[in-house]
Structure formats: C-alpha cells, structure tokens
Amino acid sequence: MANNNNTQYIPAEYQPISMWGYFGYQILFAIPVIGFIFLIVFACGGKRNVNVKNFARSYFCVLIIWAVIIAIVVAICAATGSISYLTQLAQQG
User: Fold this and answer.
1) Cα separations (Å) of 89 from 38, 75, 84?
2) How many CB atoms lie within 10 A of CB 51?
C-alpha cells in the first residue's frame, strides 16, 4: 500500500510544486517587467527548490523561442513590404 505522506521524506529543495504553484508562477512571470526580473532571478538560482528553478528556465526558453519567431515574422513582413513599396515607386516614376 502506498504512503500518501511520502512528501515529508523529500528534502525541501526537491519538494514538488502543486498545480496552484505552477499557476501562480505563470501569472507572476506574465507580469511585464517585474515578472521578467523574477523569471531571471528564479532561473539563475534565486530559489532553493530545483523544480521552481527548472520551471523558470523552461519558461525562459519558451520566451526566447517566441522572440525568435516574432523577429523572423517581422523581418519577413518588413522585407516583403519594402519590396512591394519599392516596386510601386519604380512603376510610378
């Protein structure tokens, strides 16, 4: 029979995060400036809990991936928009 109180034997730095904990950290990290500061602090080891540190690192990786995707989309839109604009200027003049 499994013991339901097995978390009391886990050291503090390895305690699992509850569902509400993940939810709260996502809300905290979503705050524009303050959340990014907390994200960097937690990802660099500001918390003793390894699970919080790993969650912050994964959230940071997702932000980097989104930033790269957005930069690529903006670059493509800027390139195609500027080519279209230059083509229209060449046809008028």
Assistant:
1) 48, 21, 9
2) 15
Query: How many other β-carbons are positioned within 10 Å of the β-carbon of residue 49?
Result: 17
Please state, in angstroms and as integers, the Cα–Cα distance from residue 1 to each residue in 4, 8, 91, following that order: 9, 17, 81
Query: Tens digits of per-residue pLDDT, 28-50?
Result: 999 999 999 999 999 998 888 99
Q: What is the structure's pLDDT at 3?
A: 54
Write down the H helix ranges in the chain. 19-30, 32-43, 50-92
- Confirm whether pTM is higher than 0.90: no
Domain ranges of the chain: 10-92
What's the CA gap between 93 and 89, in Å, rounded? Answer: 6
CB under 8 Å to 21, separation ≥6 — which residues?
Answer: 52
